Amino acid sequence: MNGMSSIDGVKMKIKMLQQQADEADERALRLQRTVDAERVLREKAEDQLEMLTKEVQQKEEDQEDIQERLATAQRDLQEMERVVEDSTRGTVVIQSKAVKDEERLEKQMMLLQEAKDVAEEADRKYLQASQKLVVVENDLDSAEDRCRDSERCAF
Fold first, then answer.
1. Percent of the chain with pLDDT over 90
2. What is the pTM for the complete model shown?
């Protein structure tokens, strides 16, 4: 029995080892599936990392472009501010000249009005003088006529 028992023991040991081997195979399959799944996940993560790296590079390039455009816009703005300042100074000068011209124009308008008033007064006096001259000429004609009449009467 001892012989049988040892065969039975060896069979049992073989069965147990076979069971352990089966379990190890199943565990190895599960681990292989896990490794495969993790490999797929790692590949996806690497693809995403590559894609994100490209996006970051593109964003950096975009940022450089934007910074260049910003610098250009700032230079343009400074130039425009200088132009506005120059224009403002020019406007002040022009306004000052316009005020002086306005004052000169007002003086000339006053002188013109005075000249018109003097001319109107001269016209009025001329008219009066003309009227007096007509009266004097009429008086002279009458006096000459009377003088002739008196000279005829005296002869």
1. 81
2. 0.44
Task: Provide the 3-class DSSP secondary structure of residue 155.
Answer: coil
Cα–Cα distance measured from residue 107 to residue 132, given in angstroms and rounded to the nearest whole number: 37
The pLDDT tens digits for 57-72 are 999 999 999 999 999 9
* Single-letter amino acid code for the residue at 13: K
The predicted pLDDT at position 145 comes to 87
Q: How far apart are CA 120 and CA 126, in angstroms?
A: 10
- Asked if the model's pLDDT at residue 1 lies above 70, the reply is no
Cα torsion 32, 37, 40, 43: sign? negative
The SS3 of residue 79 is: helix
Report d(CA 119, CA 112) in Å as an integer.
10
In the block, residue with structure tokens 């996006």? 55
